[in-house]
């Protein structure tokens, strides 16, 4: 019973923190603050935000070391349980996948509208299913494929609703929209590769999730810091927004804006903390259950974000959204009732992981 409660805690922690991370990130981009040139404008520094999130993940390694030292003389803590002696370089590809997915998604969103990401997000569940079958030798039943397909349909209904009813002040050309949509699909495919890679190596090597998150954060933060230096000198892409120095990324301007707005600073810190917790919870679910389960649970955040966005007037309410979310919820519930992970040995407590029966 206690372990089932821990399973529930992981699921709730994942959905809650990943939703909080998205909300904090979006809120920050709607805030005004003075930049390095003294002009007040919207905070638009996605790559700096990505670096901050990788920085948050590095805190997990510090937390792992602290917990390990404190529990060294007592019974082994569940947060440090596993194979702690491994070559950290095994996690470098996972950090590369994460970095590429984030960077390509941000670039894609400059060419198209956020609703495109919403429409295509459900495809990530299918991508994980296909890659799990190919590289992890998973056997996924037809009913389970139908469940994942229905989740995708739910996302498409929600996204199409925005296309039908929502209007944009800045109209982008057809070529721009097509380029952006292709980049978003590529980013979701890379994100699926990231999760399947984590399941393959973190599960097989029995790496503690908290330690794995920390190392991925170190690799990701190092690479993102290097990219920020490069982006400081690279001319901007079309639709990429204004930068005082006229480049794709002005990290100095972003830091100045954060320093000039305390509320903006709080949202950035909220993103840092929430991404560390959500990545830890997600890796725990990937290790103990599967990457597919992680993606299905991650889908719930769209509902949470939509509810908050409607309440704070960030988004218009349309009844067709309810239809899309109803399909999404029913599909998630159906998927979790049908899918069990009986292929894992030695983890009998985790065989019947379901958000409905834990």
Describe the model.
The structure is a single chain. The protein is mainly alpha-helical and 358 residues long. The protein is 69% helix and 2% strand. The protein contains 13 helices and 2 strands. Strands 1-2 form a two-stranded antiparallel sheet. A hairpin with a 5-residue loop joins strand 1 and strand 2. Helix 1 packs across helix 12, helix 3 packs across helix 8 and helix 5 crosses helix 7. The chain is globular, with a radius of gyration of 20 Å. The C terminus is likely disordered.
Please give a quick description of this structure:
The chain is mostly helical and 358 residues long. It is 69% helix and 2% strand. A two-stranded antiparallel ribbon has the order 1-2.
Core attributes:
single chain, mainly alpha, two-stranded antiparallel ribbon, disordered C terminus
> Beta fraction of the residues?
under 5%
Low-pLDDT segments, ≥5 res: 338-358
Q: How would you classify the quaternary structure? A: single chain
| Alpha plus pi helix count | 13
Main sheet characteristics: 2 strands, antiparallel
Average pLDDT over all residues: 80
* Structural class by sheet pairing and helices: mainly alpha
Radius of gyration: 20 Å
Please outline the helices and strands.
Blueprint: H1 2-28, E1 32-34, E2 40-42, H2 46-70, H3 92-111, H4 114-121, H5 123-135, H6 142-165, H7 174-204, H8 209-231, H9 251-259, H10 262-288, H11 291-298, H12 301-311, H13 319-338
Antiparallel strand pairs: 1-2
């Amino acid at each position: 019973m206690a372990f089932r409660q821990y399973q529930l805690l992981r699921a709730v922690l994942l959905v809650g923190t990943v939703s909080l991370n998205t909300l904090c990130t979006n809120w920050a981009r709607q805030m005004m603050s003075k930049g390095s040139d003294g002009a007040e404008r919207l905070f638009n520094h996605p790559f700096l935000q990505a670096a901050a999130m990788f920085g948050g993940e590095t805190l997990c390694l510090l937390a792992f070391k602290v917990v390990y030292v404190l529990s060294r003389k007592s019974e082994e803590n569940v947060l440090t349980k596993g194979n702690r002696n491994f070559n950290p370089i095994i996690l470098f590809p996972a950090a590369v996948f994460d970095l590429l997915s984030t960077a390509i998604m941000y670039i894609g969103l400059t060419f198209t509208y956020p609703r495109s990401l919403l429409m295509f997000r459900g495809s990530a569940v299918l991508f994980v299913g296909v890659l799990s079958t190919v590289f992890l030798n998973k056997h996924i039943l037809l009913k389970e494929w139908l469940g994942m397909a229905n989740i995708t349909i739910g996302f498409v209904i929600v996204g199409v609703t925005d296309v039908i009813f929502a209007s944009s002040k800045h109209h982008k050309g057809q070529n721009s929209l097509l380029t952006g949509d292709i980049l978003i699909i590529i980013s979701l495919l890379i994100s699926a590769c990231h999760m399947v890679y984590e399941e393959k190596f973190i599960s097989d090597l029995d790496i503690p999730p908290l330690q794995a998150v920390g190392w991925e954060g170190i690799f990701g933060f190092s690479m993102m810091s290097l990219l920020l230096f490069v982006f400081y000198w690279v001319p901007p892409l079309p639709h990429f927004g204004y930068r005082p120095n006229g480049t794709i990324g002005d990290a100095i301007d972003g830091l100045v804006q954060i320093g000039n707005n305390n509320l903006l600073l709080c949202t950035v810190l909220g993103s840092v903390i929430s991404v560390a917790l959500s990545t830890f919870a997600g890796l725990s679910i990937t290790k103990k259950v599967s990457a597919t389960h992680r993606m299905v649970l991650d889908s719930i955040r769209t509902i949470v974000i939509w509810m908050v966005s409607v309440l704070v007037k960030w988004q218009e309410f349309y009844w067709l959204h309810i239809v899309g979310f109803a399909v999404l919820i029913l599909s998630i519930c159906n998927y979790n009732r049908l899918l069990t992970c009986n292929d894992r040995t030695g983890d009998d407590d985790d065989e019947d992981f379901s958000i409905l029966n834990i």
